[in-house]
Specification:
about 400 residues; Creatine Kinase, Chain A, domain 2
Length: about 400
């Protein structure tokens, strides 16, 4: 998947992509000399991204009886560390695309009696390959400040979500299709990078086994993606949810009336903004309590997007994807665009948990049932504000 072209002497050279470096060929001597074709790098699309950290947080020094007190203390400590942030005072108050946003998180259970609260911290939109040392330093500062003043713990509902959009502010349809193909093709590889509970989470359902793609061979899935003429159509197919699924039942969907839902491993519903505007979100990673974890996941998503956008045709749907090859491609991309500390990405790919199937189960299939608590929280989240998407809309005014 690395991006390489061959430059010819004549105009109209064609772009080619390889999974390995092109072989050198010896030419016979001739009275007619042609310019040698030299492999050159094709610079892929650059991206902006936003991180959502979902954690259970408790103050180390104060016993907060309500989440508002904890929000204020987090804001105070981040401000003291020089980190721009804000706490939305109401559902209608604006959020900034340039500051961290601090809010409670409805999908994470809180324990007020023990002063533990489900919280969400949403980063500004950061430029992936332009001064990457800057965003890595900012993530370290935030996590270092949080760890110094608060207890950070995770549950099965905690998460590290990465929202991504081209640096231009909008997607081209072929770019989104390329990432959609990678999302389906590499799903089982990425499953191996997360704890087993994040492979069966109602908050990160399988795109490969959703209502639309379930049962189709990968080649036909690719054909269906290629056939989409709109972003809305692409998003619908990646995030098509059955009314008979646990999520559909929890949300009270009418029998036989399937619908789009955002709680999939890869969320393309944000593309419903139209005309290429919106974010694509990777929702599968578990909660992260260290900067190293957050940076590694951000690198994985950024590098995969750079490799995928426009390169969907280089994937071979009839062959089985290999995590080892995927990891090598990702690290290659991190090296090429100068992302520091690529060893974090290497460690993430190495620390895999084997995907072991129970007898009689379908590979990657979602859970058959959800808990009463998850049922309730799905309903609550349906009416929750999408802070990251609001930040994206604010970002467009500055791009």
């Amino acid at each position: 998947m690395p991006h390489i072209i061959l430059s010819a002497a004549e105009p109209g050279h064609h772009r080619r992509r390889y999974e390995e470096e092109p072989k050198k060929h010896h030419r016979r001597s001739s009275t007619h000399h042609h310019r040698r074709q030299e492999p050159q790098r094709v610079e892929p699309t650059d991206f902006r991204f936003c991180v959502e950290l979902g954690l259970v947080i408790r103050s180390r020094k104060r016993n907060h009886k309500a989440v508002t007190g904890l929000e204020d203390e987090i804001s105070t400590q981040l401000t003291a560390a020089g980190i721009a942030n804000h706490v939305p005072t109401s559902r209608t108050s604006r959020v900034s695309s340039r500051e961290w946003t601090i809010a409670s998180e409805l999908c994470i259970p809180s324990r007020p009696r023990d002063q533990h609260f489900g919280m969400k911290l949403v980063s500004p939109f950061l430029r992936f390959s332009k001064r990457p040392e800057s965003w890595q330093a900012e993530l370290r500062d935030v996590l270092r400040t949080l760890d110094a003043h608060f207890e950070l713990t995770t549950t099965h509902q905690c998460f590290t979500h990465i929202h991504i959009a081209p640096a231009s502010g909008f997607w081209e349809l072929d770019q989104a299709k390329g990432l959609a193909k990678s999302a389906l093709y590499f799903e089982r590889c990425l499953d191996a990078l997360v704890p087993p509970y994040r492979r069966k989470s109602v908050w990160a359902k399988s795109n490969r086994n959703n209502r639309y793609f379930g049962g189709l061979p990968m080649a036909e899935c690719f054909d269906q993606i290629d056939a989409q003429a709109s972003f809305e159509g692409l998003g619908a197919r990646l995030n098509w949810c059955s009314s008979e699924s646990p999520t559909g039942v929890a949300l009270g969907a009418k029998p036989g009336v399937d619908f789009q839902h955002d709680a999939y491993r890869w969320n393309f519903v944000g593309l419903n903004e139209g005309d290429g505007f919106g974010t694509i979100e990777f929702r599968q990673p578990p909660g992260s309590t260290s900067a190293s974890e957050v940076i590694a996941w951000a690198m994985l998503v950024g590098c995969l997007a750079r490799l995928s956008c426009g390169a969907g045709g280089s994937l071979k749907p009839d062959t089985k994807p290999q995590l080892k090859s995927l990891g090598e491609w990702l690290v290659y991309e991190a090296e090429w665009c100068g992302i520091p500390h690529k060893g974090l990405l290497k460690d993430l790919v190495k620390q895999t948990v084997p995907v072991t199937l129970a007898p009689g189960t379908v590979e990657g299939m979602d859970v058959d049932a959800i808990t009463f608590d998850e049922d309730q929280r799905l309903r609550w989240k349906a009416n929750d504000r999408n802070v990251a998407l609001e930040k994206y809309r604010r970002l467009l005014k500055h791009v």
